[in-house]
Write a structure and sequence with these properties.
Layout lengths: L1 H31 L3 H27 L4 H29 L4 H21 L1 H9 L6 H30 L2 H22 L3 H21 L11 E6 L4 E7 L2 E6 L2 E7 L8 H6 L11 E5 L5 H8 L3 E5 L3 H10 L8 E3 L3 H7 L4 E6 L14 H9 L1 E14 L4 H10 L5 E6 L7 E9 L18 H10 L19 H19 L8
Parallel strand pairs: 5-6, 5-8, 6-7, 8-9
Antiparallel strand pairs: 1-2, 2-3, 3-4, 9-11, 10-11
Helix pairs in contact: 1-2, 1-3, 1-4, 1-5, 1-6, 1-7, 2-4, 2-5, 3-4, 3-5, 3-7, 3-8, 5-6, 7-8
Amino acid sequence: MRGFYVYLAVIVGGAAVLAIELLGTRLIAPFYGVSLYLWSALISVTLAALSCGYLIGGYWADRGAKLSRFCAIIGVAGLWIAVIPFLRIPVLGAAGAIGLRAGVLLAALLLFFPPLALLGMVSPYAIRLKASSLDVVGRTAGNLYAFSTLASVVAALVTGFVLIPNVGMYWLVFLIGLVLVITSLLGFINGKNWRLTAASSLVLILLIVLAIVALPSQRPDPEHGVLAVRQSAYAELRVVDREDARYLLIDGGTHSAVDTASWSTTFPYVNVLDLSRRFFQQPGDMLTIGLGGGSVAKSFARNRWNVEAVEIDPVVTQLAHEFFGFKDSDAKVFEADGRQFLMTHDKTYDVIIVDAFGSSFIPFHLVTQEAFGLVKSRLKPDGIVAMNIWSIGWHDEIVNSLAATLKQQFRHVLALPIAEPPDQFGNLVLMASDRELTPESEPPVPIDRFSAEYDQAHAWDNRFEPDTKGALVLTDAHNPIDIWAERVNLAARTKLRETVDKQGIAW
């Protein structure tokens, strides 16, 4: 029976390690965004914690391996994991004060290093408990590591493909901790250690009561403006009402905003993207890569364009229908990655709009020389590509590099700035084509400072050709866009926190 329990403990521990590593992105991303730094921090913390666990676990095991201590290690790891949902907000709030890179690393260390180090101790300790002699220690170690690794594989697949999209994040983390505590309890029962059995049972009961009474909710809270909270295969998504505006937040970054009275966009860049229609005398075919709340697609559809949209996340499309006034008649939506769609569909368009970029994440595979070559192959001879980007200032490194990359495929590239003044954080639209970028009709004269006409006139009157001299041309082989986006991510989230309070709405 003891041998069976050791295998059970190794399997549960191995599964928990990978599940927690994957869930770590969902716990931290709404505050920091999904970035290269987040993944680097989580992977580094996981490997460092496991290394410490292997080292300490092996040392303790050689000093006298006891089943009760083995069970206690598993139980304490489970207890820590079970309370992570309660620790998350204060830890992220404190870590955020030291900046993006250091903050995400510190948050990962405080939340995940202790339980992962304890789980790292399980395998070497299990080997010492299970090996009956030196003659079989190699086979025993191999078997235990094989079972642990297979459990990790299964946990990674089930967590990513099934559990995260269908179970609340907090409940899922709590249940992993609960399973580890139960596994610890079973070990105490197996070892007939009734004092520790009673203590573990009390901890288990207290955890269940705590979860029922105080586990943070990820359910909608319309009274406080949270209309929807969804976990998709790609991100955490929230629909939030604040005053007269409705926001679509993806991993804590704003991807759409509309006026709830008129359903018109409150993002000036959508109005600026609409300028691309003015280069054509008649409505034509438009493709938008990235749907969001559907504002861009709706704008073109209202002007009798034939609109198609590519959106990788089906939950984004659902929320656009449910909360942002998007209709099936506005666009035909394809569920696919933008680059994959361009590779597998040969239809050509008058306008292709690339609007898949968020405040924290620029899909690197959509902004390379190769990707823009693919975009060009799906444009009609006089077609135009328009791209929405976030930057800090009109002449940001991101702007110049993307313009230089576009120039490898297109003869003409224009920047249409939106941020005021020119050195501030905000959106900017890059427009590229082989034709002269001269519209068939000039933008209308604005009569209101806060209007679509003003947004268009401001961007067009301040248009310029980006300085691409010495700018890096992005390729599939060399693309540091994730690194450059760090500054933008931090600025975007700082601005969001000035607009939307922290009382459970954005994070």
